[in-house]
Amino acid sequence: MSASSTPADARDENGHLIRELHGVTLASIVEYLHGHYGWPGLDQRLRMNCFAVNPSVKSALAFLRRTAWARTKVEELYIQTRTAEVQGKPTE
Asked: Whole-prediction pTM value?
């Protein structure tokens, strides 16, 4: 990445801007974040019952699809995490 690029300009391996979520499904976002942080890590970062009480991808998707504010928070965490990954920065 060039020195003039900003984190918001981070691109995935296909050249798409990560922040645009081009071709990324909600299911793949949840699966990626679960693989990266685990359910306890997601609950710690986002404080949502779908990650704390009997968590599963299916139950998280059901909640996120009907709760816009929660979906936005999950998408923002995904963008931050993927951007850090692409830029080679460690995530918490």
From this structure: 0.83
